[in-house]
Amino acid sequence: MTNCDVIYATGQALSDVSKDKVAARQVESNTTQFTKALENVETGLLKQINYLTTVSTGFWLRFLIVVKFILFSNLYILIVAFRLVQHSNLRIRLLLR
To answer: What DSSP letter does each residue of 1-54 carry, written as one string?
Structure first.
């Protein structure tokens, strides 16, 4: 059902309730139709929310993996550079003795 169906079902249900002589079956039918239309809209919205959550989660997960790789690769480079400086300092001290 579309949004127009929801609006139509709402209008029908309200129209039936506002009449002087209320036909219980008609009110029940229109109320049921309105409830089904709302359930369909809710289902559609939940599908869209789940899709957007999946898409955005996948994007952020890939983004975080890339950032983690960049950070760890930079950290590795810093560790190697630090060890190289330490080794150079040791060699210089040995040469100065």
So the answer is: --HHHHHHHHHHHHHHHHSSS--HHHHHHHHHHHHHHHHHHHHHHHHHHHHHHH
Say if CB 33 and CB 8 are below 8 A apart: no
- Name the residue ranges covered by the structural domains of the chain: 3-96
pLDDT digits 0-9 by tens, 40-50 = 888 888 888 88
- Cβ 12 vs Cβ 30: under 8 Å: yes
pTM, 2 dp: 0.51
Q: Which two three-digit tokens encode residue 81?
A: 């550079």
User: CB–CB of 35/56 below 8 Å?
Assistant: no
Residue that the structure tokens 């219980």 belong to: 24
Dist CA 59 CA 68 (whole Å): 14
